[in-house]
Amino acid sequence: MLATLPLLENSDFPPITRSRLETLQVNLGYRCNQSCLHCHVNAGPRRREQMNRETIGLVLDILAQKKIQRLDLTGGAPELNAHFRYLVSAARELEVHVIDRCNLTILQEPGQQDLADFLAEQGVEIVASLPCYLQENVDTQRGTGVYSGSIEGLKKLNARGYGKHDNGLVLNLVYNPAGATLPPPQAQLQADYKKRLAEQGIVFNQLFTLTNMPIKRFGSTLLSRGGFDDYMQLLKGAHQPGNLQQLMCRSLVSIDWQGYLYDCDFNQMLELPLPLPGNNRPHLRDLLQQDIEGRPITVADHCYGCTAGQGSSCGGALIE
């Protein structure tokens, strides 16, 4: 795989600093039942990295001590971590809002048949990847059969009450472009998704549009096809300074499967650690003892992916 970090480090991205910490985004491991082209984590069925019970205990300690109210679980497929349900249940007992970044097909995997029931019982918000409402596009990007499995998963969630506005069971979808382009306007695309999925009896709350990051699997593909420089020019040319104040890294800490800290999930994949004085690789244990508000954030050229156009974050577009 071709590395993109050497092409990103010498950056003119504007300096930014942290605000109050509101979200822990925890990567529970890289194992996944899919291997998607745009995946910046390089997740797949053969990956074996997984957060252990001790590290999960530190996550819960941080939530309690720092009074953080949002836990964002990602992977791989986070549900494949052996301690996923323990972490969700313990966080909910702390009255923490839990988000599960679900790929939908995991709901049909052996041993996960009751997953939808568990998520509904715990009141977990689901953010589900569905890169298009058309079968051909989804199967091209994510693999043959993924679209039908995703539709089945959505129907299963709807049957448990997800996506209906009156019961608190939130189901949001995520769109990634199929190639080296910026996402279209989020509100317009959301209307298209709602219309097309309603034809199959499916409802959801919101659609989040995310920009593909020029790192890991997607970045390597750009390099091998000679499109990396053009994509970076697209991102930089579409930079909107007004997006800087709303960047997710200002109020979020990303935690890898070993418990090490990063400013965001993308920096985690590039192995760019959260900067702390005298500590080249800060861990959850360090976060228990320090306040990081006001600290600088590590930036590189991939950060333009979050400020281009309408902006991009784990919660979708930054501006309409």
TrEMBL record:
Q: Provide any one GO MF term from the record.
A: metal ion binding
Q: Give the range the annotation lists for the signal sequence.
A: none
* Gene3D superfamilies the record matches: Aldolase class I
Domain Arsenosugar biosynthesis radical SAM protein ArsS-like C-terminal, first and last residues per copy: 182-317
Q: Which cofactor does it need?
A: [4Fe-4S] cluster
CDD domains annotated for this entry? Answer: Radical_SAM (cd01335)
Keywords noted in UniProt: Iron, Iron-sulfur, Metal-binding, S-adenosyl-L-methionine
InterPro entries hit by this protein? Aldolase_TIM, ArsS-like_C, rSAM, rSAM_ArsS-like, rSAM_sf
Looking at the keywords, is Isomerase present? no
Pfam families from the UniProt entry: DUF3641, Radical_SAM
Specify whether S-adenosyl-L-methionine is a keyword of the entry: yes
Enumerate the spans annotated as Radical SAM core domain. 26-167
Q: What is this protein called?
A: Radical SAM/Cys-rich domain protein
Species: Thiolapillus brandeum
The organism's taxonomic lineage, starting at the top: Bacteria, Pseudomonadati, Pseudomonadota, Gammaproteobacteria, Chromatiales
